[in-house]
Amino acid sequence: MKLLDALNKRKEHNQELEDEKVLNKIKEVIKNADAILIGAGAGLSTSAGLSYSGKRFEDNFSDFIDKYGMEDMYSAGFYPFNTQEEKWAYWSKHIFYNRYDVGATEVYRQLYQLVEEKNYFVLTTNVDHQFELTGFENERIFATQGDYGMFQCAKGCHNKLYENENVVKEMIVKQKDCKIPTSLVPICPVCGGHMEVNLRIDGDFVQDENWYKAADKYSSFLEENQNKKLVFFELGVGMNTPGIIKYPFWQMTNQWSNAFYICINKGEAWAPDEIRERSICIDGDIGQVLEVLGNEERVQ
Ligand SMILES: [Zn+2]
Question: What is the domain range of residue 66?
């Protein structure tokens, strides 16, 4: 037994040393980078505490859970409501709790501290505005899939977005029995049809002038840094939409010989053989890893 204990302890110790080596390597890569491209998916916000299920959902949506049998905010987002009054009663709360009720979270702050002195850019599929709330520069963020804080025409009849904070808050205050008053149902000012949250759910997603500007900035960032020490820093990107962040990051790392790929994701963290020598993948909680990376005492 004693021998087994000793062996296990040794294994743990070796694992710790291995983990430390990996984390120090990430620090070194980031420190020496000319540019850092953050690619962020849902796992980053989940790690930051913005979970779509569990207590956070049950505490804030009990009336909707009772009425519709909803199980989490993700699937509830696809619920086929019969009326606009019911739809916006739900969606105002969904938007509020994910966009207006939360300030900057610790995990995003840690990420910001890691890159704020660097030449960075953010490509994200998250729609919760966390990067902006944390202090990342607007000019350096491309949120490809929309923003909870914006409404658009449901049919995309014109390319304009509308800030929704005031109306969302009013919908929450004035809703009763999971319905908002008809007078608060948002109407498209151009075609008179329904409005929708600016989320890429179908082909009617509106990409306004700012979206195209951000897309251009993303292209320029890649162009300017493709021959430099560019680090692709992928956080919490799953396999829902790998074509936006994950696959391009792999391909560009492969094509550009000075590039390096870092992936942190709980459950799915790996890189193809072609780039394995210029990759570090950590299967773990992003918040915990960022906390260790931010801890100056560990810098060697
Ligand atoms: Zn319209």
Answer: 54-101+147-199
